[in-house]
Amino acid sequence: MNAVFSGSFDPITNGHLDVLERASRIFDQVTVTVMHNARKSGRHLFDLQERLAILREATAHLPNVSVDSFDGLLVDYMKKSDHGIIVRGLRAVSDYEYELQIAHLNREIGGVETVFIMAATHWSYVSSSMVKEVASYGGPIDAMVPPASARALKAKFAEQGRQPAS
């Protein structure tokens, strides 16, 4: 069975990667998808092509994982591809409440099931927004993100003159 792990991945964190690695052991094929939404242009630190490049590098060690993007509803993407399951990672109860609503909606409008994978305890505090905040001040991020994300964050903030690249 094939699955989709969808998110903004702005950028991918070690928590995302942990969920993805475990999903890759459960499913035959996992596609990491990044939603492209022109209405949300400018809301992400990295543009779509940058996020796809970071994801491809961060997941290169996983032979049954591919990277893709889509525009529109995830359930429509699922209908067009050979994927039967949505994978979502959960860090806390607050994630569950939000993700449960989306899972019900996806089942109702698209007939698609969702499988939740709990984040490993030591990654439960990590989020892309928190990592970006720490990185913007030159703080230590290497333990929270894969090397591809760390390099991209350091370069992006150096480019913006917000921190020296190290």
UniProtKB/TrEMBL annotation:
<feature type="binding site">
    <location>
        <position position="88"/>
    </location>
    <ligand>
        <name>substrate</name>
    </ligand>
</feature>
<feature type="domain" description="Cytidyltransferase-like">
    <location>
        <begin position="4"/>
        <end position="133"/>
    </location>
</feature>
<feature type="binding site">
    <location>
        <position position="8"/>
    </location>
    <ligand>
        <name>substrate</name>
    </ligand>
</feature>
<keyword id="KW-0547">Nucleotide-binding</keyword>
<dbReference type="GO" id="GO:0016779">
    <property type="term" value="F:nucleotidyltransferase activity"/>
</dbReference>
<comment type="similarity">
    <text>Belongs to the bacterial CoaD family.</text>
</comment>
<feature type="binding site">
    <location>
        <begin position="123"/>
        <end position="129"/>
    </location>
    <ligand>
        <name>ATP</name>
    </ligand>
</feature>
<keyword id="KW-0067">ATP-binding</keyword>
<keyword id="KW-0460">Magnesium</keyword>
<keyword id="KW-0173">Coenzyme A biosynthesis</keyword>
<dbReference type="InterPro" id="IPR014729">
    <property type="entry name" value="Rossmann-like_a/b/a_fold"/>
</dbReference>
<dbReference type="InterPro" id="IPR001980">
    <property type="entry name" value="PPAT"/>
</dbReference>
<feature type="binding site">
    <location>
        <position position="74"/>
    </location>
    <ligand>
        <name>substrate</name>
    </ligand>
</feature>
<feature type="binding site">
    <location>
        <position position="40"/>
    </location>
    <ligand>
        <name>substrate</name>
    </ligand>
</feature>
<dbReference type="InterPro" id="IPR004821">
    <property type="entry name" value="Cyt_trans-like"/>
</dbReference>
<comment type="subunit">
    <text>Homohexamer.</text>
</comment>
<dbReference type="Pfam" id="PF01467">
    <property type="entry name" value="CTP_transf_like"/>
</dbReference>
<keyword id="KW-0808">Transferase</keyword>
<comment type="pathway">
    <text>Cofactor biosynthesis; coenzyme A biosynthesis; CoA from (R)-pantothenate: step 4/5.</text>
</comment>
<feature type="binding site">
    <location>
        <position position="99"/>
    </location>
    <ligand>
        <name>ATP</name>
    </ligand>
</feature>
<feature type="binding site">
    <location>
        <position position="16"/>
    </location>
    <ligand>
        <name>ATP</name>
    </ligand>
</feature>
<protein>
    <recommendedName>
        <fullName>Phosphopantetheine adenylyltransferase</fullName>
        <ecNumber>2.7.7.3</ecNumber>
    </recommendedName>
</protein>
<comment type="function">
    <text>Reversibly transfers an adenylyl group from ATP to 4'-phosphopantetheine, yielding dephospho-CoA (dPCoA) and pyrophosphate.</text>
</comment>
<keyword id="KW-0963">Cytoplasm</keyword>
<keyword id="KW-0548">Nucleotidyltransferase</keyword>
<feature type="binding site">
    <location>
        <begin position="8"/>
        <end position="9"/>
    </location>
    <ligand>
        <name>ATP</name>
    </ligand>
</feature>
<feature type="site" description="Transition state stabilizer">
    <location>
        <position position="16"/>
    </location>
</feature>
<feature type="binding site">
    <location>
        <begin position="89"/>
        <end position="91"/>
    </location>
    <ligand>
        <name>ATP</name>
    </ligand>
</feature>
